[in-house]
Known about the structure:
Mean pLDDT is 80; it is low at 1-19, 247-255 and 294-300. This protein has three helices and 18 strands. The strands form four sheets. Strands 2-8-7-4-5 form a five-stranded mixed β-sheet, with no helix packed on it. Strands 9, 10, 12, 13 and 16 form a five-stranded antiparallel β-sheet that branches. It has 336 residues and is an alpha+beta fold.
Amino acid sequence: MKLFILFSIFLGLASTSTVYAEDYVVNIPFGAYNPELNTPAEVWYDPPTINIQFGDTITWVNNDREAHTVTSGQSTGRFEWMSQKEGGFGKPDGIFDSGRFMPNDSWTYTFEKAGTFSYFCTIHPWMEGRVNVEQTIPDFPYDAHGNKIEKFPVVQFTPDKLVEFDLTWEPNIIKTFEKTTFVFQTYDNIANINLDKMNYEMIISQNGRELFRDTGITQVGGDYRNFIFETAGPIEIRFQNIVGSGTSARASIAGEDVENPIFRTVVFSTIVYDNPEKTNTSEKVIQPAKRIDLYYVIQFSVIIVPTIMLLGIIMYMKFKKSKKRSDQSKSGALKI
């Protein structure tokens, strides 16, 4: 049985994996291009206000005869667009923007943050809509694709199936501004033993932006890292450049070219949720200071050095005792 020697494993039991996110459609009706009161369109976006959950997706379908945009920000209203005032064509806020899409085309956006989002068309700035995004924090963690994570550790294999990489995180439901501890182990999948001294590079990314990068070597087959997320949304935890460096690593003794090792990669994902109780944190993230090289330095300092000192003391005492006997023998000879 596989054991996390350094850390405890928290198991989550769940039913069949399901996708919790939902898809919605907002129609841009024929006539939305016309700001007149007698336009055939009763609303600019149908429905004009939509309530969804965190992680849900909306697709806007252009059924009008002109191109439109879906741009977050404040519209001008039906009449202000004709004025010469600043912002007469609306004020985008940069959260999302479809760009111009033509009749019979569509645009899709997934909402990964809770809140109320107003939007409009930059070509026809009287058009306006609203999306209310509510957040429901689930009882179980999900991956970035909306699949329920049924138990920990989450297991991935390198493409060559040579190395099994196990990952867990605590707490299992990740929230912003709370410290998350990622714990990982490496195994020989066939021999079912720990792969010690495995080199790796760990990268955490969110929304295409790299948040964290570090390298290390597994100790007793495992290691861990701490991190605090400030933004909600899907994250990717990537381990790359995985290669064995110890004699216990099957990757080093299975006939692989040691001088030209194969660097392996595994990728995990989950979702970070907005914390309803914390909007910031003063907690400092402290990473594990003990690496495998430091471990051997400590081992040398704690075991080897005292042993050498003890041997030195024993040899010194033997020398003193021998010298004393020699002096006594000389003293006796002189008396005779």
